[in-house]
Specification:
Elements (H helix, E strand, L loop, with lengths): L2 H52 L6 H10 L5 E8 L5 E4 L10 H10 L1 E6 L2 E10 L2 E10 L1 H48 L18 H50 L4 H34 L6 E4 H15 L4 E6 L10 E4 L1 H17 L5 E8 L3 E7 L7 H6 L19 H11 L3 E7 L3 E9 L2
Parallel strand pairs: 7-9
Antiparallel strand pairs: 1-2, 1-5, 3-4, 4-5, 6-8, 9-10, 10-12, 11-12
Helix pairs in contact: 1-4, 5-6, 6-10, 7-8, 8-10
Amino acid sequence: MTIRNRIALQFSLIVASILIIFSVLIYFVSATYRREEFYDRLKNKARTTVRFLIEVKEVDRELLKIIDHNTLTALFEEKVLVFDAQNRLIYSSVDDQVIHYRIALLNDVRNQKDVETYSGQNELIGLLYRQNDHDFVVLASAYDQFGRSKLANLRLTLGWGLLVGIGITIGLGIFFAGQSLQPISQINQQVSTITARNLQQRLDEGNRQDEIARLAMNFNDVLERLHQAFEQQRSFVSHASHELRTPLAALKSEIQLGLRRPLTVTEHEAVLQNLMSDTDRLIDLTNSLLFLARTLETSNQMPFLPVRIDDIVFMAKDELMDAKPNYRIDIDYKNIPDSETETVVKGNEELLKQVLLNLFDNACKYSDDHTAQVKISTDTKQCQIIIRDQGIGMADADRQRVFEPFYRAQNALGYDGFGIGLSISAKLIELHQGTLTVDSTLGEGSTFTISLPHV
């Protein structure tokens, strides 16, 4: 069932239930009012009859019958019976009909003094009338032809009104549900035209205020992220292919050169040295690609525990200094932490150490003195690691793209590297709910700042 039909059905059921309840309530109130009014008329008739019979001596039974038959207020199938204390019938308003009554009813009237009940389709009332220490029981019954006719007309009117109202409700429900869901239908049509080749297409966001407009806005945000992911994937494939092709082409050239003519031992050694260099570059690139893929695949599965970020800084320094003794890393505190927890963050020690190794290595590599200045700063919410170098720096255009995979600034092409480390570092810091920013001036150096929330 479509949403439009479901909404129309639910709306119709709700309105139909309200109409049914309202109609039943009206009918019930009207029927109750008719019954009570008719019982009052029967009581008045019973009291009038018994008073004429008992209190007015000029009126005998025959005259009272004539009065009952010719009164303008006579009721349909009206019957009035009067009984004395011994349950003897002393008056009957009709002689040509058999009147059925129960002795138990007379006793109930004497006990309750006022009884309202039914005799077949007729309403029946019983009254206890006392006169000069004598008790009389009066039974009066009649058929409310006029009242029941009005009830029948009301029932018919309510029934037809209910059917027409439900029909109109269903029609309006379908119409308004279709009108309300029309923007969603338009969104569906627009979404159906979006493919991997035109991810730059966006949905109409309408007034940007209602729920459907917000849905379109959120979907556009998803499309934007998908578009960026596809572009990054294309860029990754393009740069990876280029980086792999370069050492492979160099390897092939060296091999072709070695096969072109007989070489001396010295020339063989030179060719082998070049092959070794290109092979090392190819291995480094492959390892970098594998590390990038493994990091992105398994980073969400690694345990995150409270760790001291300053301890990880010193561990990264020691590991890099062991591998490259000519590097220099100066570490200092920008401010003394007020408590031990200000340098404790929730993260993975190996991942954070890899980020610091990349940033330390870059700072030393691009500086003439191979020196990196590291400052540890804390406040009430965050812990920051600031890595500053006096290296080649970068232009604003390069700074905005430096965290893209395989992107390298123009002035960094003469240095070893593949442009993968910073992109990995940015993703790892983002995984730790932190930020990695860069501030750089061309020819003067760069400053990378890691901000992580501490526990």
